[in-house]
């Protein structure tokens, strides 16, 4: 019997110690010979978890295309057996969990392939994880004594698979580095974004996407000390690693900056040994809060970006500008070495990482460093928008409470951009920085980030009160909540008799969601073009009127209306009279019936995949309303009469050919509605037959052209190294303007007469002559915060940002700015909904 037990034990050892395989042994090819499909990546990590006692997989969700999301964890067997205690000890350091830590193990999280077509990352993840997990590697055993390594091998499996499947179909049998070969031209929309064409690397703070929500929920269970995000850049750039470039947010701690330098020097030494080129302290800054390096940094980690030259065009190998072939094998090796360096430096500084992490939360929560330390959100002016903002704070684990009745408070009024005195009520919300999420709170609410350098990698202003369109104040002193926040229970609507009509509000995103649900159920809905009073209550323009007349043949009509309202927590006001006290009666021609729009969205090679994705996501995941997707290149084949709304996302020049544009315009004049966004306006600006112009007069046009030539002459004489800085003088990078909204026009319904637009381009359009200027920049005082070039800022006054032009029986809706940028500019979703459902009815 002993012999049997000994044999079984020996067999067990053989399975657990010697059966594990390297990526090459498991996959059957050398790393760099091809791109590995996602399901095989999953298989490999499951193999390691099944054969190594010190490896653990945690599945944390799935993508929109139902691919698994998971992390792989490796450490010493002792640490793995004590993993839950190590995890909880780390949460104690943040103050999010009470208690005193008894362990001091560093948590190193490395994320790969958040951009799907930067597909070297997943190959490098398998290579790096195997080297660290390999039982025969004595060096890694030493590194893991005081470190838990977490690897997310593919943060964007849908984007990666889109790229991998395409490339594996198009690649040549022999290595073909010719940049003109088909395999080096990835088709639209590319593998960079996720299923809905959203850039997941810019979604961390906003959490609009399923993958991000699930990942951050897991992140909050660990709160790592180091977070390394692996990317690729253009093939002619060699390799980038920390330290990061300026601007560096003022909230970065001295140790966060110190560790970046430690890592940079350690990695540089390894690259120098191999004679590899690299650069640091350039291009990639630490400012915008929704990146995979900045959001972890604002949560106490040392966040770092890694960028290897190559990206989707490089494929298995491509010639760079010097005529050298940059191969996938080389790219894997370089990212692998950068990963090993992170593991090594973490091991060398494990105790200090844990101590400084604890100090980060202790010092910031007791003494916040930024100018504004408390924020008051007025809760009674638009509670639906406030609740949406609070939901985002919940996702980010930011604490808040009720303000109570206070007077004589002084703070920055976001709406005016100036200091003001105000009072609070028991409906108002207080968020202050005296909490574990101190830094993130201050960053998300700061009106404008301090810039050490005006050349930035992304937008410079994102304050939540602007993006959600709520009234708020920023205070320089501490203001604590009067009592804990408790959401008021929604008083559900009930079916009570058969009222003549149900009235519903229109001022937040949930209201078009409610409307879409009714239209999907074939319920007819009207809206009031004019404000009215009925039975002692006032109703603004845009109020939804769900009248029994026209819905009498809908089965369970009342229950369907009530159920839809309860789903979105919308209080209905039933009435048995269509006779109003003031305004227009419900039978008036100014109470418009909403014809359920049949909507098409244009896509194609010249269309911005990101703007396309924002609109696609909005319809499918937020409105839950049907939308057809049309290839802009093939419009000649399609019967456009099937649609009454066409969305034209931002695009490069020529998104629609001349013949196709003629067809679309004929459709508009026959009664269609075309909604054009950002650069798509170039299709119409300054063209004969359209009211859209960049200039108020012909003299102004000539003067602008003359000025442009003078600027070009000056730029020619500028030192070469200053030309980039000169170039940004005519651009905008997230400048916030308060627009004056014509709330009497359907495009302006529910916005309260103003809208905060996020300007990310230097385009300026004069007021429409024949059309309606719904959203305008009336003067230079409308500017609030964020970077805008010195040469265009003075010219933004008296310009149109959102407008409507009639063409025949139809309309073109002009949207010079993107109203719901990256799906996080929440208040803009109502503006787009107005364009879709109200304009032209």
From TrEMBL:
Pfam families the record matches: Peptidase_M14 (PF00246)
UniProt domain Peptidase M14: residue ranges: 35-305
Domain of life: Bacteria
InterPro entries (UniProt xref): Class_I_gatase-like, Peptidase_M14
Keyword Signal set for record: yes
SUPFAM superfamilies found in the cross-reference section: Class I glutamine amidotransferase-like, Zn-dependent exopeptidases
Cofactor needs: Zn(2+)
Signal peptide: 1-21
Keywords from the named record: Carboxypeptidase, Hydrolase, Metalloprotease, Protease, Signal, Zinc
GO molecular function: metallocarboxypeptidase activity; zinc ion binding
Swiss-Prot/TrEMBL GO biological process terms: proteolysis
Any one cellular-component term (Gene Ontology): extracellular space
Assigned protein family: Belongs to the peptidase M14 family.
UniProt-recorded name of the protein: Zinc carboxypeptidase
Upper classification of the organism: Bacteria, Pseudomonadati, Bacteroidota, Cytophagia, Cytophagales
């Amino acid at each position: 019997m002993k012999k049997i037990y000994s044999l079984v034990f020996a067999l067990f050892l053989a399975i657990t110690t010697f059966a594990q395989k390297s990526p090459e042994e498991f996959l059957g090819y050398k790393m760099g010979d091809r791109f590995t499909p996602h399901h095989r990546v999953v298989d490999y990590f499951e193999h390691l978890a099944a054969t190594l006692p010190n490896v653990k997989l945690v599945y944390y969700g799935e993508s929109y295309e139902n691919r698994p999301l998971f992390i792989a964890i490796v450490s010493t067997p002792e640490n793995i057996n004590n993993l839950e205690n190590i995890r909880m000890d780390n949460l104690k350091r943040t103050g999010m969990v009470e208690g005193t830590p008894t362990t001091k193990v560093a948590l190193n999280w490395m994320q790969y392939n958040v951009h799907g077509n930067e597909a070297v990352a997943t190959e490098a993840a398998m290579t790096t994880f195997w080297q660290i997990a390999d039982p025969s590697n004595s060096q890694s055993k030493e590194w893991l004594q005081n470190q838990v390594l977490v690897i997310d091998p593919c943060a964007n499996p849908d984007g990666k698979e889109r790229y991998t499947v395409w490339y594996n179909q198009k690649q040549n049998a022999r290595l073909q580095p010719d940049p003109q070969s088909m395999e080096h031209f990835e088709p639209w929309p590319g593998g960079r974004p996720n299923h809905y064409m959203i850039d997941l690397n810019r979604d961390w703070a906003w959490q609009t996407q399923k993958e991000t929500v699930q990942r951050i929920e897991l992140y909050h269970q660990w709160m790592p000390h180091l977070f390394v995000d692996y990317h690729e850049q253009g093939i002619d750039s060699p390799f980038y690693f920390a330290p990061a470039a300026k601007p560096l947010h003022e909230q970065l701690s001295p140790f966060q900056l110190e560790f970046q330098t430690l890592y940079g020097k350690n990695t540089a030494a390894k690259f120098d040994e191999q004679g590899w080129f690299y650069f640091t302290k350039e291009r990639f800054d630490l400012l915008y809060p929704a990146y995979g390096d900045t959001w972890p940094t604002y949560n106490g980690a040392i966040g770092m970006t890694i960028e290897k030259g190559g990206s989707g065009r490089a494929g298995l190998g491509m010639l760079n500008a010097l005529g050298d072939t940059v191969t996938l094998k080389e790219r894997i090796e370089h990212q692998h070495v950068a990963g090993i360096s992170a593991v090594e430096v973490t091991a060398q500084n494990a105790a200090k990482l844990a101590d400084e992490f604890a100090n980060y939360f202790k010092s910031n929560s007791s003494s916040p460093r930024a100018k504004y330390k408390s924020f008051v959100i007025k809760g009674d002016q638009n509670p639906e928008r406030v609740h949406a903002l609070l939901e985002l704070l919940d996702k980010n684990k930011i604490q808040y409470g009720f303000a109570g009745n206070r007077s004589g408070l002084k703070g920055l009024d976001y709406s005016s951009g100036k200091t003001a005195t105000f009072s609070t009520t028991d409906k108002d919300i207080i968020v202050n920085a005296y909490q574990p999420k101190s830094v993130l709170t201050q960053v998300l609410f700061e009106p404008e980030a301090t810039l050490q350098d005006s050349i930035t990698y992304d937008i410079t202003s994102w304050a939540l009160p602007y993006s959600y369109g709520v009234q708020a104040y920023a205070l320089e002193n501490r203001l604590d909540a009067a009592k804990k926040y408790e959401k008021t229970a929604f008083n559900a609507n009930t079916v009570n008799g058969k009222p003549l009509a149900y009235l519903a509000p229109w001022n937040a995103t949930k209201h078009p969601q409610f409307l879409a649900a009714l239209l999907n159920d074939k319920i007819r809905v009207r809206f009031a073009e004019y404000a009215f009073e009925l039975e002692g209550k006032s109703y603004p323009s845009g109020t939804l009127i769900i009248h029994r007349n026209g819905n009498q043949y809908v089965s369970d009509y009342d229950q369907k209306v009530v159920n839809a309202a309860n789903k979105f927590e919308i209080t209905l006001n039933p009435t048995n009279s269509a006779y109003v006290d003031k305004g227009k009666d419900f039978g008036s021609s100014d109470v418009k019936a909403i014809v359920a729009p049949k909507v098409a969205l244009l896509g194609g090679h010249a269309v911005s995949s990101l703007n396309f994705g924002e609109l696609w996501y909005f319809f499918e995941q937020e409105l839950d309303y049907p939308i057809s997707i049309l290839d802009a290149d093939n419009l000649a084949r399609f019967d456009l009469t099937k649609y009454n709304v066409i969305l034209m996302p931002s695009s490069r020049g020529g998104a629609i050919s001349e013949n196709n544009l003629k067809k679309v315009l004929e459709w508009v004049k026959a009664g269609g509605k075309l909604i054009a966004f950002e650069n798509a306006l170039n299709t119409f600006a300054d063209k004969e037959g359209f009211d859209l112009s960049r200039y108020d007069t012909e003299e102004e046009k000539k003067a602008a052209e003359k000025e442009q030539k003078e600027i070009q002459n000056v730029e020619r004489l500028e030192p070469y190294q200053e030309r980039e800085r000169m170039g940004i003088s005519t651009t905008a990078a997230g400048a916030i303007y308060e627009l004056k909204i014509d709330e009497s026009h359907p495009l302006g319904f529910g916005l309260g007469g103003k809208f905060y637009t996020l300007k990310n381009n230097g385009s300026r359009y004069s007021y429409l002559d024949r059309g309606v200027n719904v959203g305008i920049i009336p003067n230079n005082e409308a500017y609030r915060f964020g970077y805008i070039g010195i040469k265009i800022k003075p010219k933004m006054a008296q310009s149109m940002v959102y407008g409507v032009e009639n063409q025949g029986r139809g309309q073109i809706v002009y949207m010079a700015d993107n109203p719901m940028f990256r799906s996080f500019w929440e208040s803009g979703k109502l503006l787009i909904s107005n364009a879709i459902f109200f304009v032209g009815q």
